[in-house]
Amino acid sequence: MSGSRRSPGSQVLVALVAAGPLSRAELGRRLGMSPPTVTRVVRPLLRSGAVAERPPRERSGPGRPTRRLAVVEGSAAFLGVKLTENRLYAVLTDPLGTVLAQEDPPLECTEAEAVVALIATVMARLSRRAGRAVDGIGISLGGAVVDHRLVKVATFLGWREVALADLVSAATGAPCTVANDVRAFAYAEALFGAGRDKDPFALVTVGAGIGCGIVVGGEVVPGARGAAGSVGHLPVAEGGPACEVGHAGCARAVASTSGIRAALTQRLGREVGLAEALGPGLRDLPEVRDVLRRAAGATGVLVGTLIAFLEPELTVVSGEGVGVIAAHRDAFDEEVARLRHWAASPAPIVLRPFEFDEWARGAAALAVKRWTETVDWH
Q: Residue 286 pLDDT > 60, yes or no?
């Protein structure tokens, strides 16, 4: 996400999205605003319909019952899109991340023009289904994105230098923001999920790729050129197999779904997927256990290294391969502990079940963020 300074109105909206209903006093304390400043900033948000005052809670002591401010659930709607090599996952959400409608059509053509046309079609369908106009679009994909608009490279789609945000906005008439999928997912977790009120917060995803999103002060760290968190080719297993570009023992070679499948195929003499490997028929075979434990341990090296550098308040691990870590959590935890400084406290790590729809919801969070920055608060 961008590191630009938020306006006071944006700060209020983000606080109310992230924390839920707050009294004016609580909001002022959270944002470091005086009571007159809170009143001045909130007044136009109330007029805009983005924020409303909720009835006071039951009186719990002397004095006037306190009314709370909250983002109005139906004040806006946002389309979140996650692009994979063969499918488009889309959700329509409200500002609080509640899913209003969703679908996941196949991506039959990956040419940029065809993908943009499909996004416009899906937006129209979901908008009709929910009975809501779309106020903003967020798109996430595996690749390098610059300035939240230009896809520098997305190998699985065969894209280079695609101005995706501009193309989608032209086709739909809605403002569009684009980001790397892991960073979008991390922002959504920080805003709506397990990472709420955790600072710093880190998300590591293991699946077809290996990635990391870091949230500091409510902002995802993008890096100087949009490539922060590209940890897939870091070495994690001495003497391990090589990835497709020749890096021996890197995270992608050992812990990605393709790396695990390749190792299982070599050991068993036939192709084996993750679901089968984790099933009752194979999971206890020594050769299968060895491959899966090595993958879980390699992910532990990656997460332990991240924790040593950042010391996040919480780290979430998710993705298609999270079941491997869950099945061999001891191998994962052993590597994390081995990399912990002797004086450091154990760091909380949560394994999160994976659904592609969550990636799309993460993309919608991008649009929510842009909305908080552009809604008329003057």
A: yes
Percent of the chain with pLDDT over 90: 45
Beta-bridged to residue 220, according to DSSP, are 215
- pLDDT tens across 136-161, in order? 999 999 888 888 899 998 988 999 99
Least confident of 75-79, 93-97, 227-231, 247-251: 227-231
Q: In what order do the strands lie in the sheet with 219-220?
A: 219-220, 210-216, 201-206, 314-318, 349-351
Rounded Cα distance, 373 and 138, in Å: 14
Task: Report, as an integer, the average pLDDT of 42-55.
Answer: 86
Assigned token pair, 262: 């390749």
Q: How many whole angstroms separate alpha carbon 367 and alpha carbon 369? A: 5
CA distances from 109 to 83, 106, 125 (A): 12, 9, 19
Is residue 255 very low, low, confident or very high in pLDDT (cuts 50, 70, 90)?
very high
What's the rounded Cα separation, in Å, for the pair 138 and 367? 5
- Say if pTM beats, i.e. exceeds, 0.90: no
Q: What one-letter code names the amino acid at 91? A: V
C-alpha–C-alpha distance, residues 378 and 369, integer Å: 18
Full DSSP string of 313-354: SEEEEESTTHHHHHHTHHHHHHHHHHTS-TTSPPPPEEE---
**CA angle, 121 as apex, 158 and 13 as ends, to 5°?**
90
Tokens found for residue 304: 């332990």
For residue 267, the tally of other CB atoms under 10 A from its CB is 15
Question: Which of 126, 120, 139, 117 lies closest to 94 in space, CA to CA?
Answer: 126
The whole-angstrom separation of Cα 298 and Cα 54 is 49
Distance of CA 245 to the CA centre of its chain: 27
Q: Is the pLDDT of residue 60 over 70?
A: no
pLDDT at 1: 42
What is the sign of the dihedral through the CA atoms of 27, 31, 32 and 37? negative
Peptide bond just before 36 cis, omega within 30 deg: no
